[in-house]
């Protein structure tokens, strides 16, 4: 059994997927890219884009009834691994020990040619 999560405080899904799904006591977010809730792409480099991604993730997690403190796994997709230090610094602002498990990969291309996309898995409260 699964329940879809949707909030107007994050960009709407632009395809056949949910912003997040709750199943088995966990919430699985879809990858968030740096779009504002009204669908505008955030400019200004990877720092600004990463901050918008975390704003979106916070909104989706809140709609599911959880938050960053309950994240157990994060996956970070980068267009350029040279951006890792900047994204890592923004990431560190949102998590405390014990940190979630994490994978970070460079990909050939991201939707809308953004610089960063992040998805998380979190426990429910």
From TrEMBL:
Q: Which InterPro entries match?
A: RidA, RidA_CS, RutC-like_sf, YjgF/YER057c/UK114
SUPFAM superfamilies in alphabetical order:
YjgF-like (SSF55298)
Q: What is this protein called?
A: Endoribonuclease L-PSP
Q: Name the CDD domains for this protein.
A: YjgF_YER057c_UK114_family
Which family does the similarity line name?
Answer: Belongs to the RutC family.
For this UniProt entry, what's an example GO CC term?
cytosol
The molecular function terms of the Gene Ontology recorded here are: deaminase activity
Q: Where is the signal peptide?
A: none
């Amino acid at each position: 059994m699964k329940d879809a999560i949707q909030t107007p405080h994050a960009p709407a899904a632009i395809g056949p997927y949910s912003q997040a799904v709750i199943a088995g006591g966990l919430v699985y977010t879809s990858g968030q890219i740096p779009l504002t809730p009204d669908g505008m792409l955030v400019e200004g480099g990877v720092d600004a884009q990463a901050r918008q991604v975390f704003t979106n993730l916070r909104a989706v997690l809140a709609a599911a009834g959880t938050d960053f403190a309950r994240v157990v796994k994060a996956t970070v997709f980068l267009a350029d691994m040279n951006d890792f230090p900047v994204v890592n610094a923004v990431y560190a602002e949102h998590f405390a020990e014990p940190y979630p498990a994490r994978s970070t990969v460079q990909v050939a291309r991201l939707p809308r040619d953004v610089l960063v996309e992040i998805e998380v898995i979190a426990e429910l409260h």
